[in-house]
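> run fold HTH merR-type domain-containing protein
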Amino acid sequence: MKDLKLYYSTEEVAEHFDVAASKIRFYEAEFELKIKTVGKNKAFTKKDILQLGEIIALLDEENYTIQGAKEQLKKRKHEATQNEEVISRLKNLREVLVRLRGE
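> ok
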């Protein structure tokens, strides 16, 4: 996906991953992805494509089952949320320390 498009069709995404368009539609439904619809066509964003890439990697490269991939994605999302919380706390602590140093 080298061009500067904002949205990509199911066929373009399938071509990018070298899989059938039906596989993209199946993953979209199975993983309950919220893909924008324009008319009758799906409009995938780069974020959607990254998410599909992660799903395809789990299923096709790491040999997870559908259920295993769902659990892994949920686990990764939980870990990312925890990391964001820790970063936020550290930033707040840094602000406090900078203020204390200034006083």
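The longest helix spans residues 66-102.
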